Amino acid sequence: RARAAAAVHAVELDRRLEGALADALTGCGNVVIHWGDAMRLPLGELTPPPTALVSNLPYNTATPLLLDSIEVLPTLDRWCVMAQREVVDRWLAAPGSRLYGGPSVLVQLALATTFRRSVGREVFVPRPRVDSALVAFRRTGPGAGPGVRRLVRAAFGARRKTLVNALALAGADRAHVAGALAALGHPPAIRPEALAPADFPPLAEALGWTG
User: Fold this and answer.
1) Neighbour-count burial for 136-169, b at 16+ CB within 10 Å, e otherwise
2) Does 95 sit behind a cis peptide bond, omega within 30 degrees of 0 on the bond before it?
3) Residue 75 CB: number of other CB atoms within 10 A?
4) What is the pTM of this model?
């Protein structure tokens, strides 16, 4: 499939695969292998900048990798990734559900799901202890700005509290938060999980959390 792309950036941590990859990529001069940890790779410096991300994401870093790619790679407009099924379910969770949280908001502000399929553990060798899911996205907007990300972290850092109390723990003035919520049509006792992803940017702006 590398031959169908103009350029491919491949990221691999395990140097034991070096020989096998060299053989498999014979004649594919458009492929650059970046050896190392994807979490430490300066994604924004990739040249040429990628437009699609295709990966079997490491399950313990799937969410930060996905969120980083949205933020630091504005050229990306398509994703097709595999991750632990519960992680994917959290990305796609709807407001009010038990899985809905910060990752749900940040993913859904920028991406729309175009495909999802569960993948059973029986297809892997060795067999893992968790089920997986394959999901595809297309970009619908830029990544959340610093103020929105700060708001989301503060809101879901104390999700059992009302949003007013959760943000007060992060240093916000309770009266200011209540006033901002009221101006946007939300009751003062609303909890973070009741807000839709699209509700967070205007709330961040109303609170002055834009930097």
Assistant:
1) bbebeeebbbebbbbbbebbbebeeebbbebbbe
2) no
3) 12
4) 0.92
